């Protein structure tokens, strides 16, 4: 997969720090657990050893995924993007046409999505449905629960 991953500078730095931490301390911790479990004798019936090896596999998988993400990432800043339409890093105020509620979302990359903070991925159904829309337009978005109709009220950075 050679898709570019768009990240904010903050998220890029956060992922780099997480990767560094896993490579330095995470690997040391797992290696120590494996060594300790090895010291308990017969490895064929050693649950601690199996658990430590499984932890090592998970750690190495996460390290590989982070390295892949960082190698494909491109740091973007909202000030570099136009604000005439909904794009990545856009904050968009929408009005639900069904119940009149207003909701503000920020569109972000899948790696930065956090629904609790109303940061939705540009690849999610709602994110895809809002992309490219202008103030005043109504986005009809197909979601598992049916069709959402959101009027674009405001676009900001």
Characterization of this structure:
The protein is α/β, with parallel strands linked by helices and 157 residues long. It folds into two domains: 5-75, Helix Hairpins; 78-156, Roll (Chitinase A, domain 3). The chain is built from three helices and seven strands. The strands form two sheets. The protein has a five-stranded mixed sheet. Helix 1 (9-38) runs antiparallel to helix 2. The longest helix is centred in the N-terminal third of the chain and has 30 residues, at 9-38. The radius of gyration is 22 Å and the shape is elongated.
Give descriptors for this structure.
single chain; 157 residues; alpha/beta; Helix Hairpins; Chitinase A, domain 3; 2 domains; five-stranded mixed sheet; two-stranded parallel ribbon; 3 helices; elongated
Produce the secondary structure layout.
Elements: E1 5-7, H1 9-38, H2 47-72, E2 73-75, E3 91-96, E4 102-108, E5 119-121, H3 125-130, E6 138-143, E7 146-156
Parallel strand pairs: 1-2, 4-5
Antiparallel strand pairs: 3-4, 3-7, 6-7
